[in-house]
Amino acid sequence: MEIESKVKEVLEKMVNPYLAMEGGRAELVSVEEDGVVKVKLTGQCGACPFAQLTLKAMVESTIKKHVPEVTRVESV
How does pLDDT run across 17-38, given as a tens digit for each residue? Predict the structure, then answer.
């Protein structure tokens, strides 16, 4: 399975159900060749003052745990 497919699966099965409890969602924008994943936080998460913390502490850690090829996750 390619990296992009793995990341999409993690977002749909693990990250988005968690974010949905707060009215948010993480949408995959791109997966770069160097392993950088770019996501867009939408809904309540897009405007939340803790969005950057959520991105690093929850979204990035979950993706990297299940897709070790990912080097970092950034918000766009």
Answer: 999 999 999 999 999 999 999 9
